[in-house]
Amino acid sequence: MKANKNVVINIVLVLVILFGVSSCSKQSSSKGGSTATGWKINDKKGGFQYNNKFKKQATAPGLVMVEGGTFTMGKVQDDVMHDWNNTPNQQHVASFYMDETEVTNLMFMEYLDWLKRVFPSEDDNYKNIYSGALPDTLVWRNRLGYNETYTNNYLRHPAYASYPVVGVNWVQAVEFSKWRTDRVNENTLETQGYLKKDAKVLDVKAESSFSTETYLNAPNKTFGGDDKIVLKGRKNSMSKPIKVAGSKGQGATTKSPTGIYAQRSSGLILPEYRLPTEAEWEYAAASDVGQREYNIYKGQKKYPWSGSYTRSGKRKIKGDQLANFKQGKGDYGGIAGWSDDGADITNIVKSYPPNDFGLYDMAGNVAEWVADVYRPIVDDEVSDFNYFRGNEFKKNKIGDDGKVELVTAQNITYDTLPNGRIVARNAPGQIAQVPVDQKETYLRQNFDKSDERNYRDGDKQSTRYFDFGNTDEGTKLIDAKRMYDSPKHNKPYDSIGNFASKFDKSNKRTSLVNDDVRVYKGGSWRDRAYWLDPAQRRYFPQDMATDYIGFRCAMSKLGPKADKKKRARN
Q1: Is the model's pLDDT at 17 over the cut of 60?
Q2: Most CB atoms within 10 A, among 53, 121, 473, 505?
């Protein structure tokens, strides 16, 4: 009896101790104290503000999550072209998000409409912004084919709204991605009460618009510095007056919070939309996760789907084509009444089953631009993590007043492309960008200059110079000494704006490769099945467009590799 009584007493003591420990932990966590200083975080009176309740990155519009991992990049089953440009190499890709479908005509039309409203072409300061973003509808023309119907209708007619946009060059695809970043973050901040409701429609003008980087670096300059649009806090307790206790003999006073803008530490601002890297695109298209068994991939896919054939073996859709591509000479859509893939040219997105990552049309429909500059090799000796060739490191331009310098109507930068097209490099309201300089590169081991596009393959070490170390950094290479002696077409406009084509007619050129050609991946409606293999790679000048190359956007994933922890037994 006495022993039982001792047991009961011991149990009660344990419970009391546990309750005390849990109540103490609750009490300390409820105070929100810093583990570094003990100071209160997110104090309404001021001090350090931080979103310590952040759970995970929100999935942005149009995207699906692709869990990263290791894979064999460049592994193809066939190489009938003998390109020798996809030697297998092991790479690791960090988790990221990718558009579920290719960017459609409807999505791109929304972009064009915004540009036309905000930067009216009638204003001489902005006349080239809208025209420079327009897709090239003449890509549909054919010397011996009647395609004027597509030339006139494919981009704008509602019948093609859900078809992938084409006629967009690489430069235009990049600019669309930047615009999309700003519009998504602008909508998020409006929803959270940091921006005036409907300002994005009712108050936006050329000299008063939203830029994500401007908001983060100089929020008081966003929307032209209009504090009626850019609010200093959400409509909650943080924006209400704060009661401050007075000293002896004085009553309490109130003050309004100031400078409470959303920051990166708020967890609301999403990373930028961008073109996927070649490694990301190939990894997402191959979707080897569908072949996974424990910690290995069982076999290598030839296409984004399992199996060695382009037709489905599933019972419900057995025999149906799994992509839109050219089956043979003159066979783009099969026999009438029994169509192979249901399309003459491109097709409505989501017309075919998704791959194992939930991505549609990663083979067929249109080929797709990726971010990389093309080189015949992938230099896995230098990098096997998030491989990307094409880095041009830039930084915000700082004015004489020590603050970031914004682009205005007077200093917009326009680029004239080799084909004569004029495109805007930036727009009013954005922060002007300049190349990084020695302040950022001094004594660094990981990068040494702003433009790293031709690192180890096209730089001075790769040229025919034997004494490259004896020449100054700014010395211009002799044309005959270049590694890639691609044609150099001069810009077709003279100093007074007259057009006159100036082709490089040299018959000594041996390559089309240079720092301005970009990789595109995946087969298209014009291609044979050979090009549907995710590892196949081709290249095209970044300032030119076709009727068979489109694009989709990607976004980096912040935080953990996966949202749920995986266990070996799974």
Answers
A1: no
A2: 121
Task: Express each pLDDT in 341-355 by its tens digit.
Answer: 889 999 999 999 999
3-state secondary structure of 452: coil
Exposure b/e, 126-157, CB count within 10 A at least 16 = b: bebbbebbbbbbebbeeeeeeeeebbeebbee
Q: Please choose, from the candidates 226, 342, 208, 258, the residue with its C-alpha nearest in 3D space to the C-alpha of residue 45.
A: 258
The SS3 of residue 219 is helix
Give CA angle at 150 (149, 153), nearest 5°: 80
353 contacts 322 by C-beta, under 8 angstroms:
yes
CA separation for the pair 228, 199 (Å, rounded): 10
pLDDT, averaged across the chain: 87
Q: Residue range 420-432: average pLDDT?
A: 90
pLDDT digits (tens, 9 = 90+) for 28-75: 444 558 889 999 888 877 788 888 889 999 999 999 999 999 999 998
Distances (CA, A) of 548 to 81, 164, 269, 323: 20, 9, 34, 14
Sign of CA dihedral 174, 278, 366, 182: negative
Our measurement of the distance from residue 551's CA atom to the centroid of its chain's CA atoms, rounded to an integer in Å, reads 11
- Start-end of H helices in 203-312: 212-217, 278-286
Is this structure's pTM higher than 0.70?
A: yes
Q: How confident is the model at residue 495 (pLDDT cuts 50, 70, 90)?
A: low
Please say whether the beta carbons of 212 and 266 come within 8 A: no
> In whole angstroms, how far apart are CA 294 and each of 88, 135, 298, 307?
23, 46, 10, 20
Token pair 């200059």 is found at 449
* Residues 456/382, Cβ–Cβ less than 8 Å: yes
Strands (E), 397-495: 414-416, 422-424, 433-435
User: DSSP string spanning 507-539?
Assistant: S------STTEEEEES--TTS-GGGGSTT-EEE
User: Long-range CB contacts (< 8 A, 24+ apart) of 131-135?
Assistant: 131/422, 132/172, 132/414, 132/421, 132/422, 132/423, 132/424, 133/172, 133/175, 133/176, 133/423, 135/108, 135/165, 135/166, 135/167, 135/168, 135/172, 135/545
